[in-house]
Structures are given as structure tokens and as C-alpha cells.
Amino acid sequence: MALYKKKTATDDDKTASIAVEFAEFIKKVRSEGSYVTNKDLLKYIKLFEDELTLDNLPANTLRALCRLLNIQPFGSLEIIRFQLSLKLRALRADDQEIALEGGVDSLTVPELQAACRARGMRSLGMSEERLKEQLKQWLELSLNDKVPPSLLLLSRTIYLPEDITFMDHIAEETRQNLAEIEGDKVSYGARLHLIQNIEKAIDSERKAMEEAQKKEAAKKAEEEKLAAEAAKAAAEAAVDTEIKTMAELSVESPSLDKAPILEVTQPVTPKEKAVMDAASKLQIDEEHVQSIENVIHGNAISEAKYDIKELKEQINEHNE
């Protein structure tokens, strides 16, 4: 029992020593404004293994994390925690896939932006090197089983606005946890102030993303409009060119043959020839010939034969 108490006291002293060291580290970062690396964060990770879990985070912080990861924070706290757990599981699977496919260097700029945006980090208005750097830091923490998922999420808020440093969001939460470890009580006002700052940073990032999306949509609509106008102008120019070409061809083409059109006469039947010969002999006028033709071209064959017989008799009488 005495040995156990001695060991427990030793562990408490060691934890308190690390807490003091971390407090000095926080003070140094605040005064110098330097950037906190993953190495520094992993050095003090044991201080937060039991404190920063999804089960211990308050409702406002959970909802803020949901908005950070583009999750609708609807339902009870249990549902919100379950959604965050599923999101973290999906992100960790994606992290493993990225690591297997060649790491961050194998991703294009749009893929880097999409990956950072899915993990709650800034993706617009940043260079490719900065995107790769922050995604590498995420992968180092995500693929390390010793890092609590909630700490991984909270550490990403350092990338929201450029003017907010690491101390304005993560270090304040760390300071409150250290105060509780050392026996001090953190006021609810301080916790509320921290949560409000985190939510304000998330809202600013969301508004910036919405503005960027609106600008991108307006730019795309303008490009589509210009493309449609260009296509219309090209079509009109093609039609004008075609009309001009047809007009030139019609001017250069040879004139049509103006030779007289020969009349096509129908063959004369023997009966018609006999009637015409008889009419010429008798010097019958044109009206008489026309009446004869009308009789010949009649529909009734018997009437035509009868008229021809009469005509023959008249001719015989005239010859006599």
C-alpha cells in the first residue's frame, strides 16, 4: 500500500512537472507568437488523453465541431457524438488511403483543397506548399493512435482566420485543462468565452467559403454566357460566309442554254393522214378541219366510222 501511494505520488509529481513545463511553453508561444508543431503537441499529449474526449466536450463545442466538418448538428448530443465518430472514422480511412497512394505530394491542388476542406482546415487563398504542410500535419496526428480524435479536431481550428494564433483557441482549452489538473476551478465564463471564440472563427470561415463559392458561381456563369455569345457569333458568321459563297458561285456559273425548245408532235395515224389529204384536195378551211379532228378524236368509235364513211361519199360525189 505504501509502495502504491509512493508510486501514485511520483506520477502526480511528474504530471504536475509536465503541466508546469507546458504552461511555460504556452507563455513562450504567446510572447513570441511562434507556430506550434506536431512535435510540440505530441510531447504533451498525455496531459489530454482523458480530458479531451467527445464524451466530455460540452454541447456548444460539439456543435461547433460539427459545423467545422460540414455536419448538420441536429438531434441529441448522443446523435451528434455518433456523427462526429463516423466522420472521424471516414477521415482516418481516407488518411490511410492517401498515405498508401504516395502521400500528400501525389495530390493535385484541387485534391489538396478538397482534403483540407473536409478536415476543417482552410483551403482557399493559400499556396500549394501551405496546403501540403497542414495536410501533412493532420496525417501525422491522424495516423498516430495516441492522439485523441477530439484533440485532432480542436487542433485544426488554428487554420481558420490568419490573424488568430494557436493560443486563441487550442491553448486556452489547454490552459483550462491544466488549471483543473492543478486543482484550480475554471469559471464557466472562461469556458463560454472560449466556445464563443471558436464558434466565431468557424462562422467566419463558413462565410468566407460561401463568398468564395458565390464568386466562383458568378465567374462560371459569366464564362458560360461569353461562350454562348461566342458560339452564336460564330454560327452567324458561318451562315454569312455560306450565303456569300453561294452568291459568288451563282455569278460565276455559265448561262443557261437558250436554244429553242422543239415541239414534240404526236405520230399521225393513217386515218388522220387520209382525212388531212382529203381536206387539202377539197381546200377545206381550217374550221372544217378542226371539226373533222374533233369527230375523229371522239370517244365513240362507231360515230367516228360513220363520219368517215359520209366524208368518203361526199368526196366521191365531188369527183364525179
Verbal overview:
This is Letm1 RBD domain-containing protein. It is a single-pass membrane protein. Keywords: Coiled coil, Membrane, Mitochondrion, Mitochondrion inner membrane, Transmembrane, Transmembrane helix. By secondary structure, the protein is mostly helical. It has 2 domains: 217 residues, no CATH class; 49 residues. Helix content is 70%, strand content 0%. Helix 1 runs antiparallel to helix 8, helix 3 packs parallel to helix 4 and helix 3 packs parallel to helix 9. The protein is rod-shaped, with a radius of gyration of 51 Å. It starts with a helix and ends with a helix. The N terminus is likely disordered.
The number of distinct β-strands equals 0
Q: Give the CA-based shape.
A: rod-shaped
Distance between the termini: 175 Å
Mean pLDDT: 71
The major beta sheet can be summarized as: none
Q: Which strand-content bin applies to the residues?
A: under 5%
